[in-house]
Amino acid sequence: MSEVESLSYPRRRFIRGLMHRMSNLAFHALADVDIIGRENLPRKGPLLVVANHFSYMDPALLVGFMPWRLEFVGGFQMPNAPRIVTFIPRMWGYMPLFRGTGARGALRAAEQVLSQGGVLGIMPEGGSWSQELRPARPGTAFLAVRTSAPILPLGIDGLPELFRAVRRGRRARVTVRVGEPFGPLTAEGHGPEHRKQVDALGDVIMQRIAELLPPERRGWYSDDPQVRAAARASYSYPWAASTETWAATQR
């Protein structure tokens, strides 16, 4: 196994405790952060925490305000984040994957975290290139099926406005809505039929997230045809697939 695949949970307790406090203080200094639905937060794992991904700051917000020291699956490259902040995820420690690939190492490491009763954070859309909800990449539903872990949906709203608000001399308003845990999810069969079912479960996960967002942010999952049409330009996944395939993730 590679280093990322052989981790134990929990880990990096000191640095993560410090970064939790720093993130919490920073967001409190810059924004009014409202957590709605705290009663839905499980006390412990195993748990798969899923959220929309409208800003590169989403993981930092969760680090500061969620009660667990989350493990994260995230992109090895961070094209939408300023270079000055790209060291922060690496300080926290996360399971990097190359977008558009089967990402077997990161997925197997994520399975290990959940098998140890850990809490894993993942953004099913696979990137923060838009502020409307987009279809899920297959990894989240694949993990949910493989591990039978309960799933906790979150809706994060207002974070992309944070620095614009600060430049105008006002505090941003950021809301995190916590939905009810659901699952486990199951899929039958093998090959294309299994993939079809997993894709459908990805839509189930995104629907749960959509319910926690304002109607104008629900994109592909909106009930309004005009909202879906306006968001259509952002649906295309901007990272090309590599030679790894979906079948390779199931070996």
Summarize this structure as a short list of keywords or feature phrases.
disordered C terminus, disordered N terminus, 7-stranded mixed β-sheet, 7 strands, alpha/beta, 251 residues
Helix content: 25-40%
Strand tally, please? 7
Please state the average pLDDT score.
Answer: 84
Secondary structural class: alpha/beta
H/E element string? HEEHEHEHEHEHEHH
Give the N-to-C terminal Cα separation. Answer: 15 Å
Placed side by side, the strands forming the largest sheet appear as 1-7-6-2-5-3-4
Compute the CA-based radius of gyration: 17 Å
What general outline do the C-alpha atoms trace? globular
Largest sheet: 7 strands, mixed
Domains, number: 1
Number of helical regions = 8
Low-pLDDT ranges: 1-5, 240-251
Strand content: 5-15%
Question: What does this protein structure show overall?
Answer:
- This protein has 251 residues and is of the alpha/beta class.
- It has one domain (33-235).
- Helices cover 35% and strands 15% of the residues.
- It has 8 helices and 7 strands; from the N terminus they run αββαβαβαβαβαβαα.
- The chain has helices spanning 13-30, 58-65, 87-92, 104-115, 138-147, 162-167, 191-210, 225-231, and strands at residues 31-36, 47-51, 71-75, 95-97, 119-122, 151-157, 172-178.
- A 7-stranded mixed β-sheet has the order 1-7-6-2-5-3-4, with helices on both faces.
- Helix 1 (13-30) crosses helix 2 (58-65) and helix 5 (138-147) crosses helix 7 (191-210).
- The longest helix is centred in the C-terminal third of the chain and has 20 residues, at 191-210.
- It is globular, with a radius of gyration of 17 Å.
- It starts with 12 loop residues before the first helix and ends in a 20-residue tail after the last helix.
- The model is unreliable at 1-5 and 240-251 (pLDDT under 50).
